[in-house]
UniProtKB/TrEMBL annotation:
Annotated signal sequence range: none
Protein name listed in UniProt: Transaldolase
EC number, as in UniProt: 2.2.1.2
Protein source organism: Alectoria fallacina
GO molecular function, one term: transaldolase activity
InterPro entries: Aldolase_TIM, TAL/FSA, Transaldolase_AS
Length: 305
């Protein structure tokens, strides 16, 4: 298992972080640069441009401390538009050059919601050398299509996003089986796509996923993990779902193909867990869109109109 040391900036993280007074100068600088670039990016509002520049600026502050990708998410309001998602991803890459002309663009990974439209955008972007991560992923159908279109990573949400945003909300059971099945599916069918679970809530969940390709660990959980007392000589203290030996073809999902079959993909989503997991995707997009609107209001309050 690889500890996930690639900083990830999407609207919710950016909004929470940028409200801190220490980032006021970054916000104003982002708005100023957005004004300078407005004519070059005239297909997008000044407000949205300023938001993207601020997220990129946050990522670049972490760049000297890590060796991997910097992850930036596209605008969630484009989740159902392939064309706008592609345009947004390419704009983010171009904006990186404006914010820091010396930054190596090959280290940029674009996070895109795993809708049919979003995954089609990943297909086009990957074919032109843009690294993508399929996020808000809750079903094997999404995982299978993400591999077909060439995504570098998938981010299965172990717990629905509402668990992270609404205090006291527990949600349904964590999607451990999806994380394990997706990784075994990729290895069985020789897909290079890597599994990077997100939305974990406890160190017990982290330990159960030991053996996954990578894992997203929030700072609070990382501190808890570092202070946890375990006896490494006693394997029973370190349980992992990846320790279970699976044998037989029936243990590995058969190769699925949705790249040229939108109807089959949408039906698989609708049928998965009687629609419950598709509902989690819709919920996540709604939460991200709500935060995007708050970000836009924050930028307008500072003159980005």
């Amino acid at each position: 298992m690889g500890l996930y040391l690639e900083p990830s900036v999407f609207t919710a993280i950016a909004f929470n972080e940028l409200q801190e007074s220490q980032h006021e100068a970054l916000l104003q600088k982002s708005i100023d640069l957005a004004r300078q670039l407005a004519e070059d990016f005239d297909r997008v509002s000044l407000t949205e441009l300023a938001i993207e520049i601020s997220m990129i600026s946050l990522s670049l502050r972490m760049a000297p401390h890590i060796k991997g990708f910097l992850h930036v998410q596209t605008n969630p309001s484009y989740s159902y538009s392939t064309a706008k998602t592609i345009e947004n991803a390419r704009r983010i890459i171009e904006l990186f050059r404006h914010v820091d002309s010396d930054f190596d663009a090959s280290r940029i990974c674009i996070k895109i919601p795993s809708t049919w439209e979003g995954l089609q955008a990943c297909h086009t972007l990957q074919a032109t050398g843009v690294t993508t991560l399929a996020t808000t992923l809750f079903t094997l159908a999404q995982a299978a299509l993400a591999a077909e279109v060439g995504c570098h990573y998938i981010a299965p949400y172990l717990n629905e996003l509402r668990v992270q945003t609404e205090k006291g909300y527990k949600g349904g059971p964590p999607l451990f089986e999806l994380c394990v099945s997706a990784q075994r599916y990729y290895k069985q069918h020789s897909f290079p796509t890597q599994v990077l679970p997100a939305s974990l809530t406890s160190i017990n969940e982290i330990m159960l996923l030991a053996g996954v390709d990578h894992i997203t660990i929030a700072p609070k959980l990382l501190r808890e993990l570092a202070s946890a007392e375990v006896d490494p000589s006693n394997a029973s203290n370190l349980p992992s779902l990846f320790d279970e030996v699976k044998t037989g073809a029936d243990q590995i999902p058969p190769r699925l193909s949705y790249a040229n079959d939108e109807k089959a993909f949408r039906m698989a989503m609708t049928r998965d867990a009687n629609g419950a997991n598709e509902g989690k995707l819709i919920q996540a997009i709604n939460i991200f869109c709500d935060v995007q609107l708050k970000m836009e209001a924050m930028m307008r309050d500072r003159g980005a109109v």
